[in-house]
Write a structure and sequence with these properties.
about 270 residues; alpha+beta; Fructose-1,6-Bisphosphatase, Chain A, domain 1; 2 domains; seven-stranded mixed β-sheet; five-stranded mixed β-sheet; 14 strands; about 30% strand
């Protein structure tokens, strides 16, 4: 297996390339287009920033590791998920925030070896905020080692959540789960709109846990390793191990995981 530190260095360089592109568009303006329309209204957005960022990241990674597979949100969605060497890329997580000038968005890059995360970077370029992790090497926020919270119960925790683009049954299941969590007297719940960063907030101990009922692999690939290396736990909403496929996601400090799964599993289902 390749050296995790070298992989992280490559991922960091690639993330910086993508982040610089995002910030140029963020500051200068960019046309936003609709990926899909639901009921005549469009919620799933894409821009030239996403595409240019992904192209730059992909080009750089291929120059360093020409024999590796790439999987990404825009033009790389047909990547081989069972490849020995796989880079999973989200060139712009939080496109709706980006489109509305909310500085909560990220470049997310992870390297997987035989389906296991080995190195990852999540960068919020608007704040020059870095979340990095290597398997066995810990999780770091701006070079400072971090760990999950010590919250022992839901009643002592702040949670994060996300909503998929669906405005029908999945949205109602999410809202029902939120209601169940409030029934456990949580301190509160936050929806910031960039799952990669939300997962890192779990690793940093800011959120006791996070859940979302449908995420693509590029949404959680990097954040998954960050949570694990910070001492937390991550699974699907039924408590099963994540794969490199679209999935529900529940992340926690570990102590809250069973209680979270008890709630999220009741509302699971696409």
């Amino acid at each position: 297996m390749l050296d995790p530190a070298s992989l992280l260095q490559t991922a960091t360089q690639a993330a910086r390339l993508g982040g610089d592109i995002l910030m140029r568009y963020y500051l200068d303006g960019v046309a936003i287009r609709d990926k899909s329309a639901i009921g005549g209204k469009s919620y799933d957005l894409v821009s030239d920033a996403d595409i240019e960022s992904e192209n730059a990241i992909a080009s750089f990674l291929r120059s360093v590791y020409p024999d590796h597979e790439l999987l990404g949100e825009e033009s790389l969605s047909n990547g081989c998920t069972d490849a020995e060497h796989l880079w999973i890329i989200d060139p712009l997580d939080g496109t709706n925030n980006f489109a509305h000038k909310v500085p909560q968005f990220a470049v997310s890059i992870a390297y997987y070896h035989h389906g296991k995360p080995i190195a990852s970077v999540v960068l919020n370029p608007a704040r020059d905020e870095w979340f990095t992790a290597t398997r066995g090497g810990g999780a770091f926020h701006n070079s400072r080692k971090v760990s999950v919270s010590d919250d022992p119960t839901l009643s002592q925790s702040l949670l994060g959540c996300g909503f998929y683009y669906d405005r029908g049954p999945m949205m109602r299941r999410t809202l029902a789960a939120i209601d169940d969590f409030f029934g456990q007297d949580i301190h509160g719940i936050r929806r910031f709109g960039a799952a990669a960063i939300d997962l890192c907030y779990v690793g940093c101990g800011q959120f006791g846990g996070f859940f979302e009922y449908k995420l693509a692999p590029w949404d959680f690939a990097a954040g998954r390793l960050f949570v694990e290396e910070a001492g937390g736990k991550i699974s699907d909403a039924n408590g099963s191990e994540l794969t490199i496929n679209p999935s529900s996601v529940v992340a926690s400090n570990g102590k809250l995981h069973e209680a979270m799964i008890e709630i999220t599993s009741k509302r699971q289902g696409w």
